[in-house]
Specification:
The protein is α/β, with parallel strands linked by helices. It has helices at residues 4-12, 26-46, 60-76, 98-117, 133-142, 158-167, 213-217, 225-237, 263-271, 291-299, 316-322, 328-341, 360-373, 400-423, and strands at residues 51-56, 79-80, 88-93, 122-127, 148-150, 172-174, 195-199, 201-202, 221-222, 242-246, 278-282, 306-308, 346-353, 377-382, 429-437, 444-449, 454-458, 467-475, 479-484.
């Protein structure tokens, strides 16, 4: 991450007539300056600043990537808006589930009708979906009006690709199958001034049989601790009080570094940063959540009392087919240990219903785990067949009616136990980070507790970004109505 003042100093020293730098991120600084010239021409043609809309599908890592795209676009002269009638529309795509792909195809048809009315309109596609060769072929064949396509590994090349898009009349495609490169010192436009996501690692080595992520995001690679610390220090100096450490499996952080560092050790170093109030992270894989991490969380004053620990299934047999590398009993023992050592922890999870071969008895096992662990919330999904994964080739796909019945049973159990868990906070006074004015009632603010529970309470917008004491008066299932103390 780089701030505007520092970037301006660098750009002022760049000579566009000189050879293009080969080293990163200097190469991209060169192209940011070049892109400014191209966007200036577009500004003169339009008689106004060109507009851009970055539309994000998928996870928080995608959201962080979109902040990088937005930061670069602002630095090159675009005005960011939220409407798809913008002069330049970017879809940052997700491919975890097939319906995410279908949503993108549907939106592209809508954009095509817009582009016919405005031939100067630019359309770009990036993200995980673009790492699938079959997707690229489909877009080349059926969506030839798209101007730019790039993937997850080369998102830092966006300034360079932006220039290529302006200088070419044909579709620009730049997809890498894998990389070890990590380039982070580029502009970022944060959604919130007081909190931010931080990439600490990229990729995944787990190869769960239902998941496409390792194939599209590549192998695990961790950022150096000093680079992470430096970025967080810069963010704190810019007003950030809460950070979210992001990785497909943060528990694996540091294993591939030249000087290996554990995730728990990284957390201890981050906690030393003055001015940082809260530390969050996701996602943790149960198979390698260490006692060291539990101990660090237990004694920490800054790590939030929330742990997202994906279960996926409560059936040991299905877990084996999923290649999750833990059993029902191991998961239960881990959850019990975490709750014993950190009594005020909030556990949330992910659950898949309808994995190939799953029986009603397997669903019973999942329900049993939910009832024993008592999650504060669970994201429950119907299994989505992803071409290219081992699970997609399994013959014993579960009939839709059977999946629906199991899903409804699981969802009801999650809702019942989660309400019970969240209600235990009733009457307590806890610290909440004020995030925004309530969308439904402008007289209320919306805050988030350390354990990730939402609370709405009366207050002035000037409190946004502050951490305040709130008494939790009324429990409404998954959120509270409170009063500031």
């Amino acid at each position: 991450m780089i701030f505007t003042t520092e970037l301006e100093h660098i750009l002022n020293q760049i000579d566009l007539d000189a050879p293009i730098p080969e080293k990163e991120p200097e190469r991209q600084y060169y192209f940011i300056k070049k892109a400014r010239k191209l966007v200036e021409k577009e500004t003169q043609r339009l008689g106004r600043k060109p507009t851009c809309c970055v539309n994000t599908f998928g996870c928080q890592m995608n959201a962080r990537d979109s902040e990088k795209l937005s930061g670069i676009l602002e630095e090159t002269g675009y005005e960011l808006i939220e409407a798809e009638d913008a002069d330049f529309v970017i879809y940052n795509t997700c491919t975890v589930r097939d319906n995410a792909n279908q949503r993108v195809y549907g939106r592209l048809g809508f954009l095509n009708s817009m582009k016919k009315k405005n031939p100067h309109k630019k359309i770009a596609l990036c993200g995980c979906m673009m790492q699938e060769p079959s997707v690229i072929e489909k877009i080349k064949k059926s969506y030839r009006f798209v101007d730019l396509i790039f993937g997850t590994h080369n998102i830092y090349k966006f300034p360079e690709l932006l220039c290529s898009m302006f200088e070419n009349d044909r579709m620009v495609i730049d997809i890498w199958q894998d990389t070890n490169a990590i380039v982070e010192d580029l502009p970022v436009e944060r959604k919130y001034p007081f909190k931010s996501g931080i990439n600490i690692m990229f990729g995944c080595n787990n190869f769960c049989s239902y998941c496409i992520v390792p194939y599209v995001r590549g192998r695990e690679r961790s950022r150096e601790p000093k680079d992470i610390i430096r970025e967080i220090e810069m963010l704190v100096a810019d007003g950030v009080v809460e950070i979210m450490l992001l990785g497909q499996n943060v528990n694996s952080y540091g294993k591939n570094l030249e000087n290996p560092v554990s995730f728990a050790q990284l957390l201890q170093e981050i906690e030393k940063i003055e001015g940082l109030e809260r530390i969050r992270f996701m996602t943790s894989h149960p198979k390698d959540l260490s006692d060291e991490l539990i101990e660090v969380m237990q004694h920490s004053k800054k790590i939030c009392r929330h742990l997202h620990l994906p279960l996926q299934s409560g059936s040991t047999r299905i877990l084996k087919e999923m290649n999750r590398r833990y059993t029902k009993e191991q998961y239960l023992a881990l959850a019990e240990k975490i709750k014993r050592e950190i009594p005020d922890i909030s556990l949330t999870t992910d659950i898949i219903v309808g994995f190939p071969g799953e029986t009603p008895e397997d669903v019973d096992d999942t329900i049993d785990v939910i009832q024993k662990v008592k999650f504060d919330n669970a994201f429950t999904f119907i299994y989505s067949k992803r071409t290219g994964t081992p699970a997609a080739a399994m013959e014993n796909q579960v009939p839709e009616a059977v999946v629906k019945e199991g899903f409804d049973r699981v969802l009801k159990t999650v809702q019942d136990t989660a309400r019970e868990q969240v209600s235990r906070l009733n009457g307590q006074t806890l610290l909440a980070l004020v995030e925004e004015v309530n969308e439904q009632d402008a007289s209320l603010l919306t805050g988030r507790l350390s354990n990730n529970t939402i609370v709405h309470f009366p207050g002035e917008p000037s409190l946004i970004g502050k951490i305040v004491n709130v008494n939790l008066k009324e429990n409404h299932g998954f959120y509270y109505i409170g009063e500031m103390i």
